Amino acid sequence: MNDESEVIHVEGLARMLGRTDASIREGIRRGVPWLPKSFKMGGRHCWLREDVRIFLRNLREQHSTIRVGRKRNSPPTLMLN
């Protein structure tokens, strides 16, 4: 396959994301948020290469600015009589 193609399929997306083909297919089946929106062409899931790059840039921006943890309770104290 041509790596410079504008349209990529599961195999190309797996290479771009550093994942296996099986994890991408499972992610599509489950509708996970870490995958960019795909479309079907000829019965195959497809992504535009530039859309994937934009998706990854947006994901990077979100992860670099949001640092929210869970709320913490005050530690217990001893009650002295």
General description of the model:
With 81 residues, this protein is α+β, with helices and mostly antiparallel strands. The chain has one domain. 43% of the residues lie in helices and 12% in strands. It has three helices and three strands; from the N terminus they run E-H-H-E-E-H. It has helices at 10-17, 21-30, 49-65, and strands spanning 7-8, 39-41, 44-48. The chain has a three-stranded antiparallel beta sheet with strand order 1-3-2. A hairpin with a 2-residue loop joins strand 2 and strand 3 (44-48). The N and C termini lie far apart (78 Å).
Fold blueprint:
Blueprint: E1 7-8, H1 10-17, H2 21-30, E2 39-41, E3 44-48, H3 49-65
Antiparallel strand pairs: 1-3, 2-3
Helix pairs in contact: 1-2
From the structure above, extract its key features.
81 residues, 3-stranded antiparallel sheet, 3 helices, alpha+beta
Summed up:
The chain starts with 6 loop residues before the first strand and ends in a 16-residue tail after the last helix. α1 crosses α2 (21-30). It has helices at residues 10-17, 21-30, 49-65, and strands at 7-8, 39-41, 44-48.
Strand order of the largest sheet: 1-3-2
Overall 3D shape: elongated
Helix content: 40-55%
Supply the number of helical segments: 3
What Rg do the Cα atoms give? 20 Å
Largest β sheet strand count, sense and barrel closure: 3 strands, antiparallel
Query: What pattern of helices and strands is seen along the backbone?
Result: EHHEEH
